[in-house]
Amino acid sequence: MSQALLLEGRPAADAIHRKTAERVKRLRERGIVPKIVFIRVGEDPASIVYVRMKERKAEELGIGSDTVVLSDTAPQEELLSLLKVLGKDPMVHGILIQAPLPSDMDAIQIVRALPPEKDVDGFHPINMGKLLLGDPSGFRPCTPAGIIELLSFYQVDTCGADVVILGRGNIVGKPLAALLMQKGPKANATVTVVHSSSRDIPEHTRRADIVVCALGKPAFLRGDMIKPGAVVVDVGVSRVIDPTNPRGYRLIGDVDVESVSQVAGKLTPNPGGVGPMTIAMLLANTVDAAERLTFNAS
Amino acid sequence: MSQALLLEGRPAADAIHRKTAERVKRLRERGIVPKIVFIRVGEDPASIVYVRMKERKAEELGIGSDTVVLSDTAPQEELLSLLKVLGKDPMVHGILIQAPLPSDMDAIQIVRALPPEKDVDGFHPINMGKLLLGDPSGFRPCTPAGIIELLSFYQVDTCGADVVILGRGNIVGKPLAALLMQKGPKANATVTVVHSSSRDIPEHTRRADIVVCALGKPAFLRGDMIKPGAVVVDVGVSRVIDPTNPRGYRLIGDVDVESVSQVAGKLTPNPGGVGPMTIAMLLANTVDAAERLTFNAS
């Protein structure tokens, strides 16, 4: 049996980074330095690593960045007034609040306090609404946008394709469905969203040309659940206890790689597939924000 | 062969109107008169009729209303400044701009100028975004919400059901998909959105427990495209030339009633199905707006 072609995220992300660096150069020639501010609340070790990765990549591309760290005992008002200050600062084009927030903070209220035109993570309701309406003046959330650009890079045509999305979260499932069902390039798919209440999940996945797994259920999708040649995108990440690993756990995706890679035509590795695309889209969105704030005042 | 049960809109709409009238009574006891302002631009005969129907029903329920008519040569700025005035008026809880607008007006800009907390039609991007995110603090657009309440009235359970929506418009298809895929009551369906670029439409409609037709293609859905016992909701409306009709045309839906009613278990008539629900949801949203502006200042 043949093995699925692996859709590595790195080359696709690098192609976007190269374009982003070009755009930064043009902005800098006009005296504009695109800038993103990262906000981290508390000292979650994974968050520290993620923010550092993003800072480093921003610097590489010529994008300015600041990181503001709040104590996890800081009152929510402190974060809200910080957002107000950054919202008014004309030198700041993008703002990213690193998840997770402390559980006593009201994430919905905080996201609504982000100025939508600097919400480069794409989570403000007005940006979500523009996504559903097909209005390109908002920001696409980074992971769904990254999936679309990854498929496009590897010339997987979504037009007319049956796409089945496993999972209806606000970060991946629902915004990806909204993007893929639009009329237009890199979209135009027949989209089905499957979730915990769906009756016969294999019946849906077996008829799909493209299956996107964003459930967070380790090795959920098996080879007998897909049709031969299908394209499989693995987004979910779960921690599984592993005493042989120095960290005591390892990260695994939603796809049972051994069986799926025998049936699928193409498969995104996880890690190494969608992950690198997410940061590429974040920085591309930041440059979008800078271009919009520079070239049109509307 | 048996005939499909007809899901008449009138009794379901009346049940909502009765609840709305009760809620209006409670608001009036506290000195609040819920009020909606209808804005009509130009003298489109159908728009005149629609606005008059809505005014009359509002009055019946004890909801105050004003209708502002602008000339179809009025500059867009006039409409925008009217929206600003109405947005600030504490006596106005809901604003409805009757479609269609003159073609030289920018509908996207006008909808964005609506204050979201008075957008009882549910078309502002922030309300669309809340819909997709599952945030109940916005307004559900009237036709999709009406479909959901119509199904609920006739005890059609959407939880776990395979729902296929024909059409991806911003008025019905996309917002209805967003509503039905949420976790929670009157939702929780496995939703597929099918459209002009979909490959094998009958393959999708034949596996559906519920088919919603919102294409605007006369008599598109035939009996051989659905499974026996399916529930069919007919939303589309097309004008078909008919010299025997005094108006010279008649209105027909997306469903070929003769063949579908032999196969479907339940079918909404058109007209007389979803139509009456739309106005019921508009006035219920207006009372929602008045309750929110009265009981919580946030």
CATH class (first level) name of the largest domain in chain A: Alpha Beta
What is the architecture of the largest domain in chain A at the second tier of CATH? 3-Layer(aba) Sandwich
CATH topology of the largest domain in chain A: Rossmann fold
Let me know the largest β-sheet of chain A.
6 strands, parallel
Secondary structural class of chain A: alpha/beta
Helix count of chain A, per DSSP?
Answer: 10
What is the subunit organization of this protein?
homodimer
Total strand segments of chain A: 11
**Helix fraction bin of chain A:** 40-55%
Provide the gyration radius of chain A in Å. Answer: 20 Å
CATH superfamily of the largest domain in chain A: NAD(P)-binding Rossmann-like Domain
**Biggest sheet of chain A, strands in spatial order?**
1-11-8-7-5-6
**Greatest interface by residues involved:** A-B, 39 and 38 residues
Low-confidence stretches of chain A: none
| Count of the domains of chain A | 2
Straight-line N-to-C gap of chain A: 56 Å
Quote the beta fraction of chain A: 15-25%
Task: Output mean pLDDT of chain A.
Answer: 96
Shape of chain A: globular
Order of helices and strands of chain A: EHEHEHEHHHEHEHEEEEHEH
How would you portray this structure in words?
Two copies of one chain form a homodimer. Chain A has helices at 9-29, 45-61, 76-88, 107-113, 125-133, 142-153, 173-180, 201-206, 257-263, 274-295, and strands spanning 5-6, 35-41, 64-70, 94-97, 162-166, 190-194, 210-213, 231-234, 238-241, 249-252, 266-267. The first copy, chain A, is of the alpha/beta class and 298 residues long. Chain A has two domains: 31-115, Rossmann fold (3-Layer(aba) Sandwich), CATH 3.40.50.10860; 142-275, 3-Layer(aba) Sandwich (Rossmann fold), CATH 3.40.50. Chain A has a six-stranded parallel β-sheet. A three-stranded parallel β-sheet of chain A has the order 3-2-4, with helices on both faces. In chain A, helix 7 links the parallel strand 5 and strand 6. In chain A, helix 6 (142-153) crosses helix 10 (274-295). The longest helix of chain A has 22 residues, at 274-295. The first copy, chain A, is globular. The termini of chain A are far apart. Strand 6 of chain A pairs antiparallel with strand 6 (190-194) of chain B, so a sheet runs across the interface.
